[in-house]
Amino acid sequence: MPTDEHIYQQMRNAIVEHQLIPGTRLPEDKLSDAFGVSRTVTRKVLQRLALERFVTLQANKGAFVTQPTEKESLDVLNTRIMLEPLLIPAIVANWSDAHSHRFRAMIKQENQANANHQHEQAIQLTARFHFELAYLADNAIMANYIEQLCYRSSLIIAAYGSHSSVSCDCDDHAQLISLFEQQDTVAAQDWMVRHLDNIKASIQFEKDASVDVDFQALFAHSTPYAIQ
């Protein structure tokens, strides 16, 4: 039987990857049947996703995938623009050759996803790049917050973004890694601001229509061992 954490991860990934689009209703009974768990377990997961703003709970109506508003979306992106550059000096101070190797490997995965037109996977990979960088600043509280902002950004980009939201030749993540290797803090901060500004500029606010979802089919191959 899948754990609460496994169900949470699978549902969050499905939302971020736009398999469950904003506005989609999330019936407890169908989700419980899909995962083979009780409605109590499903309700607990939905409440956790609601706390993190991936799901909206409506009295007498149930749970829905959150449809970010324009203001909320801009607030999330503007907060990232304010906070992420502040971590750059600490990231530069902690940078090592091992970090260069690790993050360049992540960039290779991003580029491959973009080359294969795997837009949803590219969204997740770019979010991971940013929040894992944040953890190098050795401030767990700030990094945890940025991780949540990155996941919320992924939902926003999946809903309103385009290819340029995650792939821009003038904004390649490899440029940032080179600046870290050169210990160029100021240039890295400038790069980060420009990069996040470009993501914000790529967003076009249009609402998706809710669709019926076959939860059994969507989560049919979901196993606890699939979590990365």
UniProtKB/TrEMBL annotation:
Q: Which CDD domains does the UniProt entry name for this protein?
A: WHTH_GntR (cd07377)
Source domain of life is: Bacteria
Record-linked InterPro entries? GntR_C (IPR011711), TF_FadR/GntR_C (IPR008920), Tscrpt_reg_HTH_GntR (IPR000524), WH-like_DNA-bd_sf (IPR036388), WH_DNA-bd_sf (IPR036390)
The UniProt keywords, alphabetically, are:
DNA-binding, Transcription, Transcription regulation
Q: What name goes with this protein?
A: Putative HTH-type transcriptional regulator YdfH
Q: Does the keyword Membrane apply?
A: no
Cross-referenced Pfam families:
FCD, GntR
Q: Which GO terms describe its molecular function?
A: DNA binding; DNA-binding transcription factor activity
Q: Taxonomically, what lineage is the organism?
A: Bacteria, Pseudomonadati, Pseudomonadota, Gammaproteobacteria, Vibrionales
Does this entry carry the keyword DNA-binding?
yes
The organism is Vibrio palustris
- SMART domains with a match to the protein in the record: FCD, HTH_GNTR
Query: Which residues belong to any copy of the HTH gntR-type domain?
Result: 1-68
